[in-house]
Write a structure and sequence with these properties.
The complex is a heterodimer of chains A (249) and B (271).
Chain A: E1 5-13, E2 18-27, E3 32-36, H1 43-50, E4 58-63, E5 66-67, H2 73-81, E6 83-86, H3 98-103, H4 112-116, H5 122-134, H6 150-163, E7 168-172, H7 180-197, E8 201-204, H8 208-214, E9 217-222, E10 225-230, H9 237-244
Helix pairs in contact in A: 5-6, 6-7
Chain B: H1 3-44, H2 54-64, H3 72-104, H4 113-128, H5 131-142, H6 146-170, H7 174-182, H8 187-218, H9 229-238, H10 242-270
Helix pairs in contact in B: 2-10, 3-4, 3-6, 3-8, 3-10, 4-6, 5-6, 6-8, 7-8, 8-10, 9-10
The chains are: A alpha/beta (249), B mainly alpha (271).
Chain lengths: 249, 271
């Protein structure tokens, strides 16, 4: 099996509290890989370690064989260009247009002077427009981001991540700010596009039903330790008990 | 609970309340005594009562009502000067305030505590010196005229503008910044795409507000020889030409009302 992303014995936390206590797993190129677990288990920290928005304290993170933990700040910026990220709160720039928000996905490839005057390349603009078509927002290109609904904003977030032409998609609780119907639409869209473009997805999600319905592989975290790994079909009651520690109910 | 303990509790509450009431009355009396003593010491003893008569006051005030209409054409230029002084000073103040805000915003200050304290210090310095004092300083530095007034108001504007901007920067939503970092953006791109759009409405609102204030300030900058309507006002005052003073004040009022109107619409346009 070829491996797109491998995480080995990852630890992270603060001086007084360790959040990830040695987590290891491997993501295949065609995986929609879910991380589930209770609040505070370290799901979000784990995702953020991969692009080092949170600094790991030890361990290895190999993207297509290159270690991301040991590289310099300069190389880290180059590595981040290849890793798209979709956020729970969308993290759009509210006062910019939908198109400009999608174009910010190219900032890693855009020089400082060009970004100062918001002069993006013609190719980038064409690509942004076709991605907005793909996520179903072709009628909203010039609207300000804060005029959109939650589902539409998350679609902008998806287009922004794809704008990077990423080799890996990190998805942090993509549906927590959405209603259940829109949540399923967004998950379906991410799955479809990831398949089309052959991008592996690492997704942390607290909704177990969504994880089993949409993902190909699941790990369960509890208190910074991996308690489960397997296919959605393997996630039985016993496994759920291990992850969520439902001792007193 | 029996009746005895209930009585005891009610007595306790009643006692507390009457104590509070007495304390309040005492505070009020002390306050009144302080006001009376102050009025006696600094107003009653200090005033030249022999000069004051009802008729005298009325006559003097009446002289202010004799507007000197012939002055009006001569007031056009100083009024424009005053408005331009205020505008220029506000732009210059904003320009100078941006780096100060950068230093004084805890989350982006470049050299940690040292630059933060320095930035905050500049803000306090700018605001704690009155514009007239800044005017005197700049008149002695660059000589009489409009330039001194502009510099004085610009320096006086730094404090407020930079303080408000710095606080807006400290309050930005971290999410968009994280998103720009995640796509591989550099520090400048995080600032330009993450922070600037979030603080822009605050910056513009503050600048309009400061412009409004600078219009007022510029009408008195002439008192220290820094040009504009204030200078004309001061000359009329020195000549005891009360009608002229009133006419100049009329021009000041017109300018301030115009400023209010413009800033009202400008604020609407940016939000």
């Amino acid at each position: 099996m070829t491996i797109a992303l491998e995480v080995r014995n990852l630890r992270a936390g603060y001086a007084d509290r360790e959040i990830l206590k040695g987590v290891s797993f491997a993501v295949a190129p065609d995986d929609f890989f879910a991380i589930i677990g209770p609040s505070g288990a370290g799901k979000s920290t784990l995702i953020r370690c991969v692009n080092r928005l949170v600094e790991p304290s030890s361990g290895e993170i190999l993207l297509d064989g290159d270690d991301l933990v040991s590289i310099s700040q300069r190389k880290l910026r180059a590595a981040r260009r290849n890793i798209g990220m979709i956020f729970q709160e969308f993290n759009l720039i509210e006062r910019l247009s939908v198109l400009d928000n999608v174009l910010t996905g190219r900032l890693g490839h855009t020089g400082t002077l060009r970004s100062l005057f918001r002069v993006f390349k013609r190719d980038d603009i064409a690509r942004a427009l076709s991605l907005l078509d793909r996520v179903g927002l072709s009628d909203h290109v010039h609207k300000r981001a804060d005029r959109l609904s939650g589902g539409q904003r998350q679609r902008v977030g998806i287009a922004r991540a794809l704008m990077q032409n990423p080799r890996l998609l990190l998805v942090d609780e993509p549906t927590s700010s959405l209603d259940p119907k829109i949540a399923r639409e967004v998950m379906a869209l991410i799955r479809e596009i990831a398949r089309e473009l052959r991008i592996p997805v690492l997704c942390n999600i607290h909704d177990v039903k969504l994880a089993t319905d949409f993902c190909t592989h699941i790990i369960g975290l509890q208190d910074g330790v991996k308690k489960f790994e397997g296919k959605p079909a393997d996630l039985d009651e016993r496994a759920m008990h291990d992850i969520y520690a439902l001792e007193v109910l | 609970m029996n009746a005895a303990t209930m009585n005891a509790r009610v007595d306790g509450i009643a006692r507390d309340r009457s104590r509070t009431r007495n304390a309040r009355t005492l505070t009020l009396l002390l306050g009144l005594a302080f006001v009376a003593a102050t009025v006696y010491a600094i107003v009653i003893k200090d005033t030249d009562w022999t000069r004051l008569s009802i008729g005298g006051i009325a006559t003097t005030l009446g002289r202010f009502a004799e507007f000197d209409v012939s002055m009006l054409p001569g007031l056009v230029d100083p009024t424009i000067d005053t408005a331009l002084m205020a505008t220029l000073a506000t732009f210059l103040g904003l320009f100078l305030a941006l780096p100060v805000a950068w230093l004084g915003a805890r989350n982006i200050t470049p050299l940690g505590r040292a630059s933060y304290v320095f930035g905050r210090g500049l803000m306090t310095l700018s605001r704690s010196v009155h514009e007239i004092i800044w005017g005197l300083i700049f008149v002695s530095a660059v000589g009489l005229g409009v330039l001194a007034g502009v510099l004085a108001m610009a320096v006086r504007s730094i404090g407020f503008i930079s303080k408000v901007i710095a606080e807006a920067i400290e309050d930005v939503q971290p999410g968009p910044l994280e998103a720009i970092r995640a796509v591989g953006g550099n520090k400048f791109q995080v600032l330009w795409y993450g922070i600037v759009p979030q603080v822009l409405p605050v910056v513009l609102g503050t600048v309009i507000f400061e412009w409004d204030i600078n219009i007022r300030r510029s009408t008195i900058m002439g008192l220290v020889g820094a040009g504009g309507l204030g200078l004309v006002l001061f000359r009329q005052m020195a000549r005891s030409n009360y009608g002229g003073v009133a006419t100049v004040l009329l021009a000041v009022l017109a300018l301030i009302i115009l400023g209010e109107v413009i800033s009202h619409y400008a604020r609407k346009a940016i939000i």
